[in-house]
Specification:
alpha/beta; TIM Barrel; 7-stranded parallel β-sheet; 9 strands; globular; binds coproporphyrinogen III
Length: 346
């Protein structure tokens, strides 16, 4: 099947389908026993990301089990920091740990020269996934947005208050702008190469966009994303792009009215009537089931799915969670969810 005819790409072109296509953020992961098995023999998490055979295998696992409409490349947003030369590790129970950038001088350590060499296994993984996917399944490539990736690079890991990165943003303005510019350039090149390796749709994750004031969000989340989309478009005018500026509230309107991407992924807090009335006429929406409802299952999940389908199911829409699937999710609930979305819930 041609890329343009796949359910996911049709929705992103603005078509309302009888049943929305479905895939789930973090659909490959620890909630699946077959993932845990591969993960245990891969070595470190980054070793898994850079092993084309194993990364292909874990990408395909949820497709085999659930028949989702899209596969998402198995990787992580922090491979960009790693490929720029920063030290990145994933520690059991702690999440990502990076050697933090402390002053503007540390920027000199980041380089684009070896970037694509380090990421070559990711491009090979895309090529292998593409060859193995069912005809109707779309292949999604992705990257983190500059603000979210910069926050990990400066904080050295996950953060509650973003004190250090906001310190740079408002105190070392020139250095912070230089880091964002570098990430715009690296991420644009990375996504262009992903398309050339087989990605048919791209998603940009700005997981921490909601931590910014509205003006800072426009300057450091929206504007860099706009530049990346323009850079990718200059090379590949037709590739659909989904943005996920998580938890920006009414700020979603800024992304919708600018119409520079084809899809907007909604977090669970977005009011659905508002999204339908103010966002869906501008763009394809994606989301937004609370990942905990997928853990709970049963009636609560059923009601949550019905609520979303009733409000957004008529417009251009892709069913997804409002954030990544959690490790506690019973795989049977995922199978049930796919059935509900395909057959129409309640
Ligand atoms: O969706 C998919 O199936 C593709 C794979 C994917 C991963 N990370 C694999 C992963 C994607 C799209 C990501 C994106 C990502 N990574 C984001 C943006 C989306 C979001 O969740 O907000 C962020 C912020 C990260 C950074 C990151 N990676 C964190 C904070 C963690 C630790 C938390 C955790 O769940 O353990 C990771 C590790 C990670 N990335 C895992 C997976 C499957 C778990 C590591 C393991 O299996 O040992």
């Amino acid at each position: 099947m041609k890329t343009a005819d796949k359910p996911l790409t049709r929705a992103l072109k603005g078509k309302a389908l009888k049943h929305p296509p479905i895939w789930l953020m973090r659909q490959a992961g620890r909630y699946l026993p077959e993932y845990r098995e591969v993960r245990a023999r891969a070595g470190s998490f980054l070793d898994l990301c850079y092993n084309p055979a194993l990364a292909t295998e874990v990408t395909l696992q949820p497709i085999r089990r659930f028949g989702f409409d899209a596969a998402i490349l198995f990787s992580d947003i922090l491979v960009v920091a790693d490929a720029l030369g920063q030290s990145v590790a994933f520690e059991e129970g702690r999440g990502p740990v990076l050697e933090p950038l402390q002053t503007g001088k540390d920027l000199a350590k980041l380089k684009l020269d070896r970037f694509h060499d380090r990421l070559a296994p990711v491009y090979e993984t895309l090529d292998r996934i593409k060859a193995a996917l069912p005809a109707e399944t779309a292949l999604i490539g992705f990257a983190g947005a500059p603000w979210t990736v910069a926050s990990y690079m400066i904080e050295g890991g996950s953060s509650r208050d973003f004190a250090k990165v906001k310190g740079w943003m408002h105190g070392q303005i020139t250095e912070f702008a230089a880091l964002i510019d570098l990430l715009v350039e690296a991420t644009s090149q990375y996504l262009i190469r992903q398309v050339e390796a087989g990605a048919e749709v791209l998603q940009l994750f700005d997981s921490w966009a909601g931590a910014l004031s509205h003006p800072d969000m426009r300057q450091f989340s929206l504007a860099p994303l706009r530049k990346i989309v323009a850079n990718v478009r200059a090379k590949h005018p037709n590739v659909p792009i989904i943005l996920f500026p998580r938890a920006v509230g009414a700020g979603y309107l800024d992304f919708a009215v600018e119409k520079f991407a084809q899809g907007l992924s909604l977090d669970p807090g977005v009011p659905l009537e508002w999204a339908r009335d103010h966002l869906q006429s501008q763009t394809c929406l994606q989301g937004n089931l609370d990942p905990q409802l997928l853990v709970i299952g049963g009636r609560s999940m059923n009601a949550g799915v019905a609520r979303i389908l009733h409000r957004l199911g008529k417009g251009p829409f892709i069913f997804n969670l409002g954030h990544g699937i959690v490790p506690e999710t019973p795989p049977e609930h995922v199978a049930e969810l796919v059935k509900l979305v395909r057959e129409g819930a309640g």
